Amino acid sequence: MKILIAEDDLTTQRVLEALVLKWGHQPVVTGNGQDAWEHLQSEDGPRLALLDWMMPGGSGLDVCRQVRQRTAPGYTYVIILTARSDSEDAITALEAGADDFVSKPFHPHELRARINTAERILELEENLSKRAFYDHMTGLPNRSLLAERFRRSTDAAIRNGEMLAFLYCDMDHFKMVNDNFGHATGDAFLKELSRRLRESLADAGTLARVGGDEFVLLANVRTTDDAAALAKRVREVLVRPIEAQGHRLSLGGSIGISLFPKNGDSLDVLLRNADHAMYELKRQHSNGGFQFFDEEVGARYRAKLMLETRMPEALRHNEFLLHYQPIFRLSDWGLAGAEALIRWNEPTRGLVSPAEFIPIAEETGHIIAIGKWVINQACKHAKHCAAQTGGEYRVAVNISANQFAEGGLVDTVAEALSRHGVNPASLELELTETALVRNLENSAATIRALRDLGVRVALDDFGTGYSSFSYLANLPINTLKVDKSFLHEVHSNHGRFAVLKAIVDLAHKLGIMVVAEGIEDAEQLKATEDAGCDEVQGYLLGKPASPEWQNPAPPVEMTRGLNALAGHLAARTPVHV
Hints:
The chain is α/β, with parallel strands linked by helices and about 575 residues long. About 50% of the residues lie in helices and about 20% in strands. Strands 13-14-16-17-18-19-20-21 form an 8-stranded mixed barrel. A 5-stranded parallel sheet has the order 2-1-3-4-5, with helices on both faces.
């Protein structure tokens, strides 16, 4: 253990130094108060100080008071040495913050006993400090220690013309590790990741764990290029596969960067801005990398915060509305139904894209209430339209992964069907592969419960996720919706057409209807017809529109256009493999 000896009398100084060495400690010797204070301020400075009451450059009591006024983590044990022996002097020393008081001349056995007592107290304090300032699982500094390191670094950074960079790191899709392999595997992953980061960034600055799978690196940099170079070093660690309890996991991660003093002067602001930059990277669906915070990012997140705050109020004030995109049968060009697509008519912004507010709703949990509202509105619309078509009309509703996993979906649907008196077959729930793969067994059970209600179930966006054909055989779905990505150049690329036709043929053998979505031109429409798709939808056939046309038949102009298009396409040569 390092022990500071601050004593201006050379004879006493040498005696103390010899005793400290003899007892197996490392002496740090000075003869004045100013040097003593500088030693105690250093990050790896002594934890035990023997301070002479009277010495140049500041008395031992002055140094003791300075020690007690600082907020740095880790306790410094102070023993005052003095020739004074009056009880009032001892009280004065203790009131200044000293832990002990030794009168000179002292007996070596007495001093050693007092130092041993100090060691035991410091060991206990260190254990408590680890709990307060270090993450218990990874051993990394926590947010409290990060705050202290930042506070102690700001003045020096400004004085030296440097910046402080906050690199906020978040693992991509870490929740899926816990969901699929358990928290023990997730913890093992984080421990190994922490070890690698600590090893790789030992010379870079302070690495802290501030959340479940969130880490922050605080580092001194002179330029943004220096910060970018650090981000690349972090990125190299994040992308390397990790073995955790028999599972080889390769997640990658996203890094947001904020700079002091450019992007803020407080820890909370700088962490928030780095976090915003990191989520901006995720919003762009970038495959990892890093993103610096700027005012454009800040403006987007202020807008996000406004939407997040207003969302519950918007639901109460009926600001959400549904637009419907028509779905047509290829067999007779009849209108089969429509897909309900939510919009938000925000008073200050007008129509807000679902791509902007749905992720916020999922993140905040508001998606559950919004999803219930959508199901009820869709049932109301389905009943109205089915009454005019003799029941040959269905409304498709997108169900979020969170709403599907929440557990109350079946009850929500049953309640809506009962409330609006709608034929269950008029309602179709669209689920994505992402929602289903979280737990295939539970997913199949939920789908069977929905089918028992008489509701139709569709697998949406097939081809954008895991695209496993086993889903088609193991999940009791009615409809397969082929993603528009399959239709790119499908009329001229025989390989793409062959894949599309194989999907359709397999689905039909399993008794599953196929809908091609995203039809944008006549060639795509012809290809889907040649591949054997049952139904189609897309901008070529009809854009999403408000349900103000309550007649569930397409407008006359659309019907004429479709008939003409069908006749034109029928005369064309079919696509062949």
